[in-house]
Design goal:
Helix content is about 50%, strand content about 15%. The protein has about 325 residues and is α/β, with parallel strands linked by helices. The strands form two sheets. A six-stranded mixed β-sheet has the order 7-6-8-5-9-11, with helices on both faces.
């Protein structure tokens, strides 16, 4: 009997060990704090856990695993299984998706941003480039058009933007440079300090980031309609980790992405609805830029940036014109629907 019980206990222990070994746990690297920008990552983790009965879980770390500029490097070496990054932080590593950061593309809402990002992410050139970093593109982090907060008098003409020290990355930085501003690409987490210390006069962010990183608290004004463009921030998985998932786990992950994005859009929509009250509460003036100024900005920034980007990509052996045309056609289709 004693031997039988010992054997039974051993079998039970072995079964427990096997069950524990079968559970999958991913570490996910993001930054800042939980906010509208990370809600799809949080929702994805929740859905995957639910669908797998807790056998596939994600531990989301806000800055504890990596610096935001190093998330793609961390993915490449398998330091963690999933991460979020922004293309403008290292344009040389993710050249293809920077087409989505070109100024004045004409994207009007978050749904259209999801459509054009998804189309570019599905292009073979994007897949191949990310594979060089052992990364699989999962979903975008759609953001509205960026606008400025600033101190002092509003920068509401191109003449007033001359010499303006602005926190703007990627294509946005190039756009402001085209009208005589001086862009700097400090990270989101460094923006408040840069503004507080006077390193920059203005900061270009989407609404959630002005709130989350405190730049709205330094601001005297906010441009409501400049809308020069946005940045593109993919969520990626380490390819080895993705391929190591069981069929059921992979299905749980893949099938949860559309719902995670829907949750993101709904949550961000609520933030946009209350934005005016946020400005009023913080005493920040809402500045409407004259349409003639915006057209002048577009003329100086859009076509030159587009042509330079296409030429640069083609020179590097990437299908720059094809990718730009894909964005234009996808956007037209999204607007038509």
């Amino acid at each position: 009997m004693k031997k039988l019980m010992t054997t039974a206990c051993g079998v039970a222990l072995s079964a427990t060990i096997v069950a524990e070994a079968a559970a999958t746990e991913w570490n996910v690297s993001v930054w800042g704090k939980r906010r509208a920008f990370t809600e799809h990552v949080e929702k994805l983790a929740e859905l995957v856990s639910e669908k797998t009965g807790g056998e596939f879980t994600m531990n989301i770390s806000y800055g504890g695993l990596s610096k935001n500029r190093e998330n793609l490097d961390g993915i490449s070496i398998g330091a963690f299984e999933m991460a979020q990054f922004c293309a403008g932080y290292h344009r040389d590593k993710n050249r293809v998706v920077t087409v989505l950061e070109l100024p004045f593309l004409g994207v009007e809402n978050l749904e259209q941003e999801v459509a054009v990002s998804s189309a570019v992410y599905a292009h073979p050139a994007a897949t191949e480039e990310m594979a060089q970093w052992n990364a699989k593109l999962l979903m975008t982090s759609p953001m509205p058009q960026y606008n400025l907060v600033g101190t002092g008098d509003p920068r509401d003409t191109l003449a007033k933007m001359e010499g303006m020290r602005v926190r703007a990355t990627g294509g946005l930085g190039k756009a402001f440079e085209a009208v005589g501003a001086v862009p700097t690409s400090v990270t989101a987490t460094e923006a408040y300090q840069a503004m507080e210390s006077g390193v920059v006069d203005t900061v270009a962010f989407a609404q959630h980031a002005h709130l989350s990183f405190g730049t709205i608290n330094q601001a005297d004004w906010w441009t409501a309609n400049l809308n020069p463009g946005t940045v593109n921030c993919p969520v990626v998985a380490n390819i080895d980790a993705y391929e190591a998932l069981s069929d059921a786990e992979r299905e749980a992950l893949d099938s949860s992405i559309p719902e995670a994005l829907e949750h993101y859009l709904s949550n961000y929509g609520e933030l946009l609805q209350k934005w005016d009250s946020v400005l009023e509460e913080k005493g920040v003036a809402k500045v409407e830029i004259d349409s003639a100024v915006i057209e002048e900005f577009r003329a100086k920034a859009a076509a030159p940036a587009r042509d330079a980007w296409i030429a640069d990509m083609e020179a590097q052996g990437l299908p720059g014109q094809e990718l730009y045309d894909l964005v234009v056609s996808t956007l037209a289709e999204a607007k038509g629907s």
